[in-house]
From TrEMBL:
The keyword Electron transport appears for this protein: no
Lineage, uppermost ranks: Eukaryota, Metazoa, Chordata, Craniata, Vertebrata
Protein name as it appears in the record: Contactin-6
UniProt subcellular location: Cell membrane
A single MF term (Gene Ontology): cell-cell adhesion mediator activity
Domain Ig-like positions: 49-137
GO CC term (a single one): plasma membrane
Superkingdom as given in the UniProt entry: Eukaryota
Major localization listed first in the record, in broad terms: membrane
InterPro entries with a match to the protein in the record: FN3_dom, FN3_sf, Ig-like_dom, Ig-like_dom_sf, Ig-like_fold, Ig_I-set, Ig_sub, Ig_sub2
Keyword list, A-Z: Cell adhesion, Cell membrane, Disulfide bond, Glycoprotein, Immunoglobulin domain, Membrane, Repeat, Signal
Length: 573
């Protein structure tokens, strides 16, 4: 509780300390002398004091966040208040189009919103409150922390065949101390930048030094450095100059050493080429070493091409399909490098020396023959057999063969399809392996069946009684060059998407006992030695319910199972 104190000054003025509402009213000044008395009155109006109730406070934020600095007051209702903000002493002009700053709040609220705050928004913010009676202000400081700026001046101080010493200077910390540096590298062979292994860095003043290890010799590298702090990982530095590591003896042997095949008296050796980044220097090539299994001395050969991946050794004394021990190594101008493990590779083989026997051919239809034969018993001297080749031709073929098919392994039968009807075909067989094909067997022949009947079943009649479909049609007559009709095949289904059921019969009539929940689709084909003939036109038989709606007799459906009976009579009753 404040006590009001009133003083009369020497000039007659009235001074009031700790004014309260009780001090409001009319005050009259009276002056007197020998000439008389003078009076003057004035009205004292007392207003509520303006107070900043919620001032802005210091804030620590991360780049990209949005914050609100509060500035709220209590005031006399009759007094107008004006809010303004200073940033580092400069007035913020909200009338300009600003991306980050915005004044928010009502009459007694002057909050400042900063959207998507950036590093350059760090500093002091002052809220100024102005009325006709007084001026108030409060100041707060914002610290904006971000990821580090890119390190500077990355350079290579020293390079060996497998290491490189780097120097760099730190970039801007952006109000958060740098906690880690990561060295990245790339080569002409890599996809993008990759972090690499380093030894602990050394700090000499403002310069940082780190040694990158486990590099490949004779490869061009460029480096960059990325800094990180508690906020995150910053932008990378500019790349260093491109520098090649020193050469050294190659240490990676060729992979996937294999071989085999080729012609008689040949040893074929293959391997996977060593990529350029693992060749370790100029003058790169391959050393090939081999010896017959059981021998103590090695034969050595050189392939000087960096792209070489195959070597063929020819010698008439090589036994067919003989095992050799093989290993492949690498070298460059620095010396001879690593050799691969020993692999077993077989020499080339002879073509099969024996022809298949027991060949027979059977006609299956107008377009298909079945060929069968006895397997060839082989050994190393008669030539390995990997499979068989079937050759076939017609009597009037212009070429020696019309067609050729191969079977792999110990298969002794093969069907030949897509042949001409009623045509004699000659067939022969021969065995094959990696060296080629052997002698042909004695030709055999067979004639394909006549063509299937060309006429379709016609004059199809049907009758629907008690969930039975009774079918009847005319016998199909064949032409002289067509196979005789042996029977008929009836295909029926409830709709185009459902399963098709098949009934075969030797007669020209049939009975189907089926549930009638949907319409039925039926077609009939001829069967003959030459294959199936053409289908009849598709017949749609409506459901019993649709027939009932037209005045026909209603038949109740049987169970879902389909029962089929063949009738010897011309129609069913």
């Amino acid at each position: 509780m404040y006590l009001t104190i009133i003083f009369i000054l020497e000039d007659g003025s009235l001074k009031i300390y700790n004014v309260t509402k009780a001090d409001a009213g009319v005050y009259t000044c009276i002056a007197m002398n020998q000439f008389g008395v003078a009076r003057s009155s004035g009205n004292l109006i007392v207003k509520e004091r303006t107070i900043i109730t919620t001032p802005p406070s210091n804030v620590d934020v991360t780049v990209g966040e949005s914050i609100v600095l509060p500035c709220q007051v209590s005031k006399d209702p009759s007094i107008e208040v004006v809010f303004s903000w200073l940033f580092n002493g400069d007035l913020i002009d909200f009338n300009r189009r600003m991306t980050h700053f915005e004044r928010v709040g009502g009459e007694s609220v002057g909050d400042l919103m900063i959207r998507n705050i950036q590093i350059n928004h760090s500093g002091k913010y002052t809220c100024i409150v102005q009325t006709a009676m007084d001026t108030l202000s409060e100041t707060a400081e914002i610290i904006v922390r971000g990821t580090p700026g890119p390190p500077k001046d990355v350079s290579i101080e020293h390079v060996s065949s497998t290491t490189a010493v780097l120097n760099w200077r730190p970039g801007i910390e952006n109000n958060s101390p740098i906690q880690i540096y990561t060295v990245q590298t790339r080569t002409p062979f890599s996809v993008g930048w990759q972090a690499v292994s380093t030894v602990p860095e050394v700090i000499n003043g403002r310069t940082h030094t780190a040694t990158v290890v486990d590099l490949n010799p004779w490869v061009e590298y460029e480096f960059r450095v990325v800094a990180g702090n508690s906020v995150g990982i910053g932008e990378p530095s500019a790349p260093s100059e491109l520098l090649r590591t020193k050469a050294s003896i190659p240490t990676v042997a060729p992979a996937n050493v294999s071989g085999g095949g080729g012609s008689r008296s040949e040893l074929v050796i293959m391997w996977e080429s060593v990529p350029e980044e693992l060749q370790n220097g100029e003058g790169f090539g391959y050393i090939i070493m081999f010896r017959p299994l059981g021998s103590s001395s090695w034969t050595k050969a050189v392939a000087a091409s960096v792209e070489a991946s195959k070597y063929i050794y020819r010698n008439e004394s090589i036994t067919p399909l003989f095992p050799f021990e093989v290993k492949v190594g690498v070298f460059n101008q620095e010396g001879v490098g690593t050799l691969s493990p020993i692999y077993i590779v077989y020499s080339g083989e002879d073509e099969p020396q024996l022809a298949p026997s027991g060949t027979s051919v059977q006609s299956l239809s107008a377009s298909e023959l079945e060929v069968s034969w006895s397997p060839v018993a082989w050994n190393r001297h008669t030539g390995r057999v990997l499979g068989y080749e079937v050759l076939y031709w017609t009597d009037d073929s212009k070429d020696s063969t019309t067609g050729k098919v191969r079977v792999f392994g110990n298969i002794t039968a093969k069907n030949i399809t897509n042949l001409k009807a009623n045509t004699m075909y000659f067939v022969t067989l021969r065995a094959y392996n990696t060296a080629g094909t052997g002698p042909s067997s004695v030709p055999v022949n067979a004639t394909t069946k006549k063509s299937p009947p060309s006429q379709r079943p016609a004059n199809i009649a049907w009758k629907l009684t008690n969930s039975k479909i009774c079918l009847n049609w005319e016998h199909v007559k064949t032409m002289e060059n067509e196979s005789e009709v042996l029977g008929y095949k009836i295909l029926y289904r409830q709709n185009r998407q459902s399963t098709t059921h098949i009934l075969e019969t030797n007669n020209t009539s049939a009975e189907l006992l089926v549930p009638f929940e949907e319409d039925y689709l039926i077609e009939i084909r001829t069967m003959s030695d030459g294959g199936e003939g053409s289908s009849s036109e598709e017949i749609r038989i409506p459901t019993m319910s649709s027939l009932s709606s037209k005045g026909r007799h209603i038949c109740y459906s049987f169970e879902i199972a389909i029962l089929v009976h063949i009738l010897n009579s011309s129609f069913c009753y």
